[in-house]
Amino acid sequence: MQQQQRLVANRYALLAELGRGAMGVVWRAQDQLLGRAVALKELHPPQGIAAEEFAVLEERMLREARTAGRLNHPAVVTVYDIVRENGHTYLAMELVDALDLATVVKQHGPRDSVWMAGVALQVLGALETAHSAGVVHRDVKPSNIMVRPDGAVKLTDFGIAQAVDDPRLTHNGGIVGSPAYMSPDRLSGWEASPASDLWALGVTMAHAVEGISPFERTSTASTLHAIMNEPPVLRLASPALADVIRGLLTVDPSRRLTAGQARQMLVAIVQGAPPVPLPRNGSSKGGGKSKGTAVKVAAVVVGVAVLAGAAFAGYQAFTPDDSNAGQNTGQSTAPSNGSSADGGTEWTESSALPVGAPLPSRRIATFGRGGDVPEWNISGTQCAKDFLTQGSPVRTNVPCDQPHGIQLFSAATPLWDKPKDTAYPGTKWLADFTKNYCTEQFKAIKPKSGEVLGFTGLVPTQKEWEAYNDAATPGRQEVLCVLWKQDRSPLAGSLVN
């Protein structure tokens, strides 16, 4: 005998479970009164949850209904009904037969820039409608953007959206949202705003076209550090889309692209028109912090401003290059003098150096077992007394407020999301990654100093990489960015905030 369908409110017949999370279930259902398919979201928190927590969750669901009900835009999921029955709360919504953007990227890889510009335009329209109604979404991210096969987009989950005339939902005053998509201004304690939604849209676009979230790391602390300090690396985005992303990811919200400015640039991309240049308030380099913003941000990231080996993502798909694995070079063509650290973008290539020779600026070198720098024992943004020289170890650090020769100004773990027994990717692959990473990091430091600085990147040797699990002296699988004064006179003070 066929099992009778569960009926909610004597109206909605539950047909199949579409998804389940810690706090609820989403059903495909049939509205028997109107004869249409709907998505029915059921609040279903775990047993034993405190009454106060349950009330917050229920209020979020009610807020989702009220907020979406105020917004009339084709990219906003329509809410039809809200039902309370037998102690349960249900939300009847438009059924969207589509994958979310996070799943699309996971299953099909990085998205084309023109395709992404079209998706972003639709999300932008939904956000403009919300912002005009006094509503801030607060959780724009790939998993909240549904993309149908015909390209139509729906922005979902207004459950934590905040209207200017509504009280905060968090009873403890905490920040609500997904850390990797939060803007620096939100993390610094400012209220969510249209500008913070636009930042999240920029992060979402970067995730989609690069295939990986630009700021998400292995811990919350390193994620916050990345948001505050690491400009996104955009290798697959077209130049025009990269400008939009960087404009949206300007740290200072007063200089961030507005919705109107972003729309103009995105329309040009979709139409194949000449690129619209970034306006003066935006920044093609990821933006700079105003003094006030920097002070507030600093208060948030005390203790996490520098994390040795903080994961750095956003690079091309990992393809091992065994042809040069273990070699001590990995340089590309560049000026012969290698002295472009005062503003150029080229890296130098040089032959093997004699022991004791200074390592040139912008020449990738190796560190660790058998490397150009055979031992490296400093981390974070620590300083060391001596300069980098061929064959000399760097074993001990000195306080950065005392005279010193070099400073480690950044570090990244390129394959942070892969097992530690992953094969050595090859010096050339690591060198290419490091040149891009250290160049971007140096751009954020150089304007703070009136001195001509040299800098370079260090990559681990194959032996160093493979010794990661050595119990006595574990190897390192990170890349390092090191700087010094170009005239090799002593530095006095840290160049990293």
TrEMBL record:
Biased composition (Polar residues): 323-351
SUPFAM superfamilies hit by this protein: Protein kinase-like (PK-like)
Region (Disordered): 323-359
InterPro entries per the UniProt record, alphabetical: Kinase-like_dom_sf, Prot_kinase_dom, Protein_kinase_ATP_BS, Ser/Thr_kinase_AS
Record-level Gene Ontology MF annotations: ATP binding; protein serine/threonine kinase activity
Manganese keyword on record: no
Root EC class: transferase
EC number(s) on file: 2.7.11.1
Name under which the protein is recorded: non-specific serine/threonine protein kinase
Organism: Lentzea guizhouensis
Lineage, highest ranks first: Bacteria, Bacillati, Actinomycetota, Actinomycetes, Pseudonocardiales
